[in-house]
Amino acid sequence: MKCSSIDLKAYLLDESPGDERLAAEEHLASCEACAQEFDRLQAVHMALLQLPEEDVPRRTVLVDRASQAPRSGWAFWRFSPAWVFASAAVLAAAIVVHAVTRPSPVAPAAVDTARIEALLEEKFSARLEEAVSRAVAESERRQAERSAQLVAEAEKRFQLERQEDRLAFQESFEVLRKRTNVLFSASADWGARQ
Known about the structure:
The protein is mostly helical and 194 residues long.
């Protein structure tokens, strides 16, 4: 079944007939792309259902009041270009008068930049000092750990060297003892022959 033959919107809104519903369910089970599209449609539908209901705004109808007004001398002033122009002129004049007569703006209070700079410098110095002291403490801690590690390695190497020296000494001593025994037995044999 082609993806284009499935109407996911009608299926979501329960507007499709029974046989098309079954076909849509089977297709959604087998087509990953359509299943993802249906999930997105479902999410949008749920989001729209969460919105509060509002009254539909009434249309604003512009009515030519001049055509509906009774014919009299005052009809001219109800809605005419001259009335609009006069209103605009009065509004413009009010704006100009306000601009001319308004009080001058008050200058902002002088900012004490020296004090602000001193406060910033003090805070910066405090933070810098704190950062330096933390860095120094961390460096000293790492140095102490490294020194302890080097000392431990040196002690281990020294103990291994002592054990090697002791073994070499014992082997040399054993060789000398054997040679001494050989010499004693040779001298005893030689003295017995003479």
